[in-house]
Amino acid sequence: MTWFYSKNGQQLGPISDQELVNLSKNGGLSATDLVWKEGMPDWKPWREVSLLSSNPTPPNMPALPQSFDGNVMVRQPPMHVPAPLPPNIPSYLWQSIVATVLCCMPFGVVAIVYAAKVDSLIAVGDYVGAQSASDSAKIWVAVTVGIGLLIYFPMIILWIIGLSHIP
Predict the structure, then answer these.
(1) How far apart are CA 14 and CA 55, in angstroms?
(2) How far apart are CA 98 and CA 92, in angstroms?
(3) Cα–Cα nearest to 39, from 25, 50, 28, 53
(4) Burial of residue 79, with CB atoms counted within 10 A of its CB: 0-12 exposed, 13-18 middle, 19 or more buried
(5) What is the DSSP string of 16-27?
(6) Parallel, antiparallel or unpaired: strands 10-15 and 34-36
(7) Rounded CA gap, 107 and 146, in Å?
(8) Cα–chain center distance at 45
(9) pLDDT tens track for 59-70
(10) What's the pLDDT tens digit per position in 136-161?
(11) Other Cβ atoms closer than 10 A to 140
(12) pTM of the predicted model, to two decimals?
C-alpha cells in the first residue's frame, strides 16, 4: 500500500506500509505528522490513521503559512468541534415566588421579574445577560427574605414569649 506523508511542510512519498511504520519507529515520523492514502478524504495526523488502502496520487497539500521567524507551521485538517454546552445558570424563579408569597410582595416581584429573564436570555445565547439577571434575582430574593425576617421575626418572638398578640 502506498502512503504519502508531510514533514516540515514538504510532501514526501510514496512509501509502503512497512516503510511508514519503520519511519515512525525510527523517529522519522511523529504522531502529529500528516499522512495520506487513497480513500482518505484529507490528510490526517499519523496517530489517527490505520493501514488499509493505497493509491499513488494524493490530493494537493494545502499551502502552509510562514511564521514571522521563518519556521513553517503545519496546518492540520479542520477538526469537528462540538458546540459548547450553555453554562448552568440558576434562575431562582421558585425561590422568588416562595419569598414573594411568604414574605414581602413588592420586593419579591422584582426578584420574579429578574428570575423570569434568565431562561429566555440563555435560549438566545446571551449568557452574560443571563448571569447578570440570575445574580440580580438572587440578590432580590435575599432582600425579600431579609426584609421578611426583619418584619416577622420580632413579631413571632414576641408572640412566642406572650408579649404581643398577633391575630
Answers:
(1) 9
(2) 10
(3) 53
(4) exposed
(5) -HHHHHHHHHTT
(6) unpaired
(7) 10
(8) 25
(9) 565 555 544 444
(10) 999 999 998 888 888 877 777 777 77
(11) 24
(12) 0.45
Ramachandran angles phi, psi of 149, nearest 5°: -65, -40
Q: Which three cell numbers stand for residue 16?
A: 509502503
Size of the chain in residues: 167
Position of cell 421575626?
A: 153
Residue indicated by cell numbers 404581643: 164
CA atoms within 13 A on the CB side of 31: 2
Cell of 151: 418584619
Cell of residue 131, nine digits: 448571569
Strands (E) located in 8-150: 10-15, 34-36, 44-45
Instruction: Tally helices (H) and strands (E) across the chain.
Output: 4, 4
Return the CATH number of the domain spanning residue range 1-81. 3.30.1490
Spell 97-134 as b/e; 16+ CB within 10 A means b: eebbeebbeebbebbbebbebbeebbeeeeeebbbbbb
pLDDT of 75 reads 53
**CA-to-CA distance for 104 and 114, rounded, in angstroms?**
16
**What's the confidence (pLDDT) of residue 152?**
79
C-alpha torsion sign, points 5, 6, 7, 10: positive
Domain boundaries, the chain: 1-81, 93-161
